[in-house]
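Researcher: Go.
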Amino acid sequence: MRMEEQELAQRCARGDRRAREELYRRYSSRLFALCLRYSPDRPSAEDNLQDAFVKIYDKAWRFRWQGPGSLWSWMAKVALNQIFDKKRQRKLLQADVDTSFLENLPVEEPEYNQVTTIPTEKLAGLIESLPERYRTVFQLYCVDGLPHKDIAKLLGIKEKSSSANLARARAILAKEIKKLLV
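Model: Structure:
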């Protein structure tokens, strides 16, 4: 029998072992994909997944039902907070990156139809090669759809820094894509 989201969350909050197993079965692969996107490697993503579920089980009583999909949104936020808290502790997001070359960089982005001619693996490699702070903001904004306000809170930076990091990421990607198109 498959429990509805709201009942599943309530039973997890009460410590129901079966509900917790169901929650893990239902959401672990999706949550792992999220962890993998923000972890340096697969073993770290696996660790982050397990840490996220420990926090989710521990904090399940805080979840407030807001309609279908709200359980997943809450779980994703818990996982992202856990991942970025760990990164902040290790100061991975604080490393300075030389951005002086960006000042004269044209921000003219390539046309969509030009970008679609580039293999997906190549584009993924370009994104992966971005400095971590730019890549992280780019992924949170463009892939996960978070607004700059949430990204700033999540990463412990100012909203303007989030916006600037996205602009820099886009400028770098535009430059690299233009090279591929020549």
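Model: The chain has a mean pLDDT of 83.
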